[in-house]
Amino acid sequence: MTARFAQGWLLPIALIATWQAVGSTVQNPRMPLPSKVVTAFLRMIADGDLPMAIAQSLSRVFMGFMVAASIAIPLGLAMGHVRAIERNVDPLVESFRPVAAIAILPLAILWFGTGTGAAVLIVAYAAFFPIIINTVAGAKRINPTLLQAAATMGLTRMRTIRTVVVPAALPSIGVGLRIGMGVAWTAIVAAELAVGAKAGGGGSGGIGQMMFVFYAYSIELNRIIVCMIGVGIVALLLDRLIRWALRAAMPWTAR
Amino acid sequence: MRTTRTRSVLIYLRTMALFLAAWALAAWWKDKPVLLPSPLAAIEAFVELAGGMELFEHAGISLARLLLSLALASALAIPLGLAMGLRPTLDRVVDPTVELLRPISGIAWIPLALFIFGIGNALPVFIMTYAAFFPILLGTIAAVRTVDARLVDAARTMGVPRRGIVTHVVMPAALPSLLVALRLGVASAWTAVVAAELIGAPSGLGYAIEWYRELLMTPQVMAFIAMIGILGYLCDRAVRELSVALTPWAPESAASR
User: Fold this and answer.
1) What would the pLDDT profile of A79-134 be if each residue is shown by its tens digit?
2) Closest Cα partner for B174 from B147, B155, B151, B201?
3) In this predicted complex, what is the ipTM?
4) To the nearest whole angstrom, how far is the Cα of B157 from the nearest Cα of chain A?
5) Measured at the alpha carbon of residue A128, what is the angle toward residues A244 and B27, in degrees to the nearest 5?
6) Across the interface, do A221 and B209 touch by the CB < 8 Å criterion?
7) The total number of structural domains that make up chain B
8) What is the pTM of this model?
9) CATH number of the domain where residue A234 is located
10) How many domains does chain A have?
11) CA distance B181 to B176
12) Are B93 and A107 a contacting pair at CB < 8 A?
């Protein structure tokens, strides 16, 4: 077991060691080195810059995610349950789905300025499609016998949705939420980067903008790498958090 | 069959007509053409940009970058994925590194890549290759693992050399899932191209959108956004058609959605 565990760490350690060794020979004070990245990381946590930026990005992600989920889940359930609604709404969903979320950033900036509004719109747009598609799929996959049983027992349509369709679709909705969260986190970094790059330095904040400032104004590669690691860690933690929450909410789906 | 098809086309047109009508109404109500131009103005801009070839020039550049980075990502990820899927030891050594890098989205590499490559072609290609690499790699590994072990054993019994097993047994069996992975890679790269071009390229669709936003020419911005959607759809469709053509035996369900 420990031998297998060690095997996995061999390559990352070797890569980092090579980076440190080769990087040390480069005669340029800007050359990023693992040792410098670690000191930069500690310093940025100590002075609160990194946690602050991440917190700001996360609050936008949650806002946009909530907007997306609160539209996509009811609409997806309706589409999955009622064929006529799906037929009529699906063209709209399928027409907008191939448009990358970042592509509407210029419009979002026009409408909401460079602050939180534009970022929330991008996140909501990005997270909307995985959630709705998985909700529709979940609501459609339901066992028809259950629906027939509900109809036999004279359940109203709303009651059928609440007591039969929603529980059956929950695991699939959960998958949609998890994918949506991943996409949302990628989108916020992109949105903040682009806002930082195109609308001047100030104003927007968040980890994406912080990275761009380190690139464009102070040229601190070590700090850019710290931000990248931060982006990765948050992505991992968000995914774990959602997995854990879904398992706790739906113990029967645990694999 | 024919009638249901016509019917779904009609429903599609009706939905889109309603959407355009709602948009037109909102534009008329708001009465601020810079913020929300009418759909007519956007369509006009689209036709004009298409007529002047500008639309196709930028689209061609973005597509060429997409194809190049897909080729690069496949050339790196498919052999590595095959090797990792076939050799558990290699998988144990490489997988943790992949899992350490994967959460860092391609877009998060943009500032560092800007510093390394500068503004130009290399930056979007690098970002897109990175973005497409992980879905293709993970898909290939998963595809190899789903190959029926009895087929491999049978080939080995008949004395097929290792290389032959990979090309004649593993590859064909894994191909349907591999094409699904390629589809995910295309989607991932296409999302990244816009972000990469928006920030760090002197051409391409992402660049064009930003250019017209700065000029406050919103109808043109919308025309380019529509083009991104159309091409995104066509790329996805192309990979789906490719998987139907290459793997006609695979169930449609594997190829669709």
Assistant:
1) 998 889 998 999 899 889 989 888 888 888 888 877 788 889 999 999 999 999 99
2) B147
3) 0.85
4) 30
5) 155
6) no
7) 1
8) 0.88
9) 1.10.3720.10
10) 1
11) 9
12) no
